[in-house]
From TrEMBL:
Keywords: NAD. It holds the Pfam family Epimerase. It comes from Candidatus Doudnabacteria bacterium RIFCSPHIGHO2_01_FULL_50_11. InterPro entries: Epimerase_deHydtase (IPR001509), NAD(P)-bd_dom_sf (IPR036291). This is NAD-dependent epimerase/dehydratase domain-containing protein. Residues 3-243 form the NAD-dependent epimerase/dehydratase domain.
C-alpha cells in the first residue's frame, strides 16, 4: 500500500515525500511539473531529495481518470494533498488557473480517494484563509469568510469540499493551515528566495508595506513533522494550524538573510500589495494537543540553513537564472 503525495515535486511536497520514504513508507509522488516556475528546480528536488526509489506519476490532478488509475495501480491508502497553484499576486494574471487547480483539482483528488477507499486524507490549506480577521493569534475556531486574495478563497473552497466529502463518505480528513513556510528548496517566487537572488545580483529588494509586516515564519522541517503526525493519526474531520507561533518582523527576517549571505540589501520600500496579509500569528495549541506538534527552529537557524543550500546549489542548478513571476 502506498502513500500518495500530490505536488510531490514541490517545496513542501518533496520534503514530505523524502521524510516518508526515509522511514520506510512506500511513496507515490504525483506532479505535473508545470511552468509556473522553472521545472528545473522541481526535477532537482526529485533527483536530490527522492532519487529513483520513489514512484513518480507525471499527471495533472484535474484529470480524474488519470488520478484514479494512479491510485488503483499503486494501491494508495493514504493521501497528502499538497498540489495547488500557489502565490497571491499571480492570481491577478491567471485567476482561472487557481479555480482549476485548487478547486477542481481538489475535487478530483478526493473523488479518486473515495473510489480507492482511502484510509486517511491530509490537505494543505493556508494561513491566508484568515483574511481580514484582526484577532491574534489566529485560532481554527475563527470564521474564514473574509479572504483578501483569490488564492485564499480557493483554499477555503478546498476545505469546504473536503468537509462535505468527509461527512458524506466518512472519509477521515485533516486540514492543515500552513503559516509562511520557508527553508531549503523553497519556491523561487517566495520572498526569501527573491531577496537572496537579488542580493546576490546586487539588485534592490522589494519590501512591501514599507517593511511593517510581521509573519509567523515556519521552517520546513517543523511543517513536515506536523504533516507526518496528521498522516499517522486519523480524525473524522479536523482543521489544525501549523505555524511557529512567533511572528517575526519582515525587517528582522531580512537582517538574518543579510547576516548569513554576508551582504547588505538595498531595500526598495513599497506600499502593500493587493491580496497581501500583513500579519500572521498562529495559535498552535490544537496542534500540540492532537499532533504532539512542537516547532523547534528559530528564524535565525532556519535562514542559515536556507543560505547554506542557496549558496551550494545556485551555480550547479542555475537558480540565479530563475526569474520570479
Amino acid at each position: 500500500m502506498s502513500i500518495a503525495v500530490t505536488g510531490g515535486a514541490g517545496f513542501i511536497g518533496s520534503a514530505v515525500a523524502q521524510k516518508l520514504h526515509s522511514r520506510g513508507d512506500d511513496v507515490l509522488v504525483i506532479d505535473n511539473f508545470n511552468q509556473y516556475y522553472s521545472p528545473k528546480l522541481k526535477e532537482a528536488r526529485v533527483h536530490f531529495l527522492l532519487g529513483d526509489s520513489v514512484k513518480l506519476e507525471r499527471i495533472d490532478i484535474t484529470d480524474y481518470e488519470a488520478v484514479k488509475e494512479a491510485f488503483r495501480k499503486h494501491k494508495v491508502k493514504k493521501i497528502v494533498h499538497l498540489a495547488a497553484q500557489p502565490g497571491v499576486r499571480y492570481a491577478q494574471k491567471a485567476p482561472e488557473v487557481y479555480e482549476r487547480n485548487n478547486v477542481l483539482g481538489t475535487l478530483q483528488v478526493v473523488r479518486a480517494a473515495i473510489e480507492s477507499k482511502v484510509e486517511n486524507f491530509v490537505f494543505a490549506s493556508s494561513s491566508s484563509v484568515y483574511g481580514l480577521n484582526k484577532e491574534f493569534p489566529s485560532k481554527e475556531s475563527q470564521p474564514v469568510q473574509t479572504p483578501v486574495s483569490l488564492y485564499a478563497a480557493t483554499k477555503i473552497a478546498g476545505e469546504n469540499i473536503l468537509h462535505a466529502y468527509a461527512k458524506m463518505f466518512s472519509l477521515p480528513v485533516t486540514v492543515l493551515r500552513f503559516f509562511t513556510v520557508y527553508g531549503p528548496w523553497i519556491r523561487p517566487d517566495m520572498a526569501l528566495f527573491i531577496f537572496a537572488q537579488r542580493i546576490a545580483r546586487g539588485e534592490p529588494i522589494p519590501v512591501y508595506n514599507f517593511g511593517k509586516s510581521a509573519k509567523d515564519f515556519t521552517y520546513i522541517d517543523d511543517i513536515v513533522s506536523g504533516v507526518i503526525s496528521a498522516l499517522d493519526l486519523r480524525f473524522v474531520f479536523e482543521v489544525i494550524n501549523l505555524g511557529n507561533a512567533v511572528p517575526v518582523q519582515l525587517m528582522e527576517y531580512i537582517a538574518q538573510l543579510e547576516k548569513y549571505l554576508g551582504k547588505k540589501a538595498e531595500k526598495q520600500l513599497l506600499p502593500a500589495q493587493p491580496g497581501d496579509v500583513n500579519k500572521s500569528y498562529a495559535d498552535i495549541q490544537k496542534a500540540k494537543e492532537l499532533l504532539n506538534y512542537d516547532p523547534k527552529t528559530t528564524v535565525s537557524v532556519g535562514v542559515a540553513q536556507f543560505v547554506e543550500w542557496f549558496t551550494k546549489y545556485q551555480d550547479p542548478l542555475g537558480l540565479l537564472d530563475m526569474r520570479e513571476q
